[in-house]
Amino acid sequence: MKSFFITLEGVDGAGKTTQIELLRQIPLAQNWLFTRNPGGTSFGQKLREILLNDRTCQLHEMAELFLYMADRAQHIHEIIQPALRNGQIVICDRFIDSTLAYQGYGRGLNTELIKQLNKIATSDLKPDLTILFDINPKIGLERAKSKDKIEEEGLDFQQKIRLGFLQLVSEEPERFVIIDTEKNNIQEAHQKVIESIFKLIN
Predict the structure, then answer these.
(1) Alpha carbons 65 and 79: distance in angstroms, whole number
(2) CATH code for 4-201?
(3) pLDDT value of position 154
(4) pTM given for the model
């Protein structure tokens, strides 16, 4: 069986988590591996708590970047690569594009540096398909039920992130599918997710 690596991306509140939960429920997905970045390993769960929820820890932007890379390197080695070698379909909630959008375009760190670090951390693994859930960041923040440290940074930050994602799409249009979750309701977006994945794997 051929393996596929699929990632789901988007600004906060774009509906990504809802779509992942719907995707888990389809019968075929019972044999798929669902994971997330950060937090796909026990080590990553500890880093996720620091990165997103520990408000006593004021991370420098470069320290934040390297923690994401540490999580990714462990995640690739422990979870993703073994699953792909075994012929599984892997669905990952965020991956390399989030770091480029958030730390690169959002925080203003050097995107070429981030690309090089991503290549090192992932052993140059890229997704076969990336589904980007796109929404006006203002609406996304209004929809977000609970805010982590990233979401608390506000609308201007989220707008930079959205522009970053769209720039990444323009650089690799063949890898991305954009789903507008502002114009499409939950079920319509879900159907587009299913269609995109089945087009890839069939």
Answers:
(1) 21
(2) 3.40.50.300
(3) 86
(4) 0.95
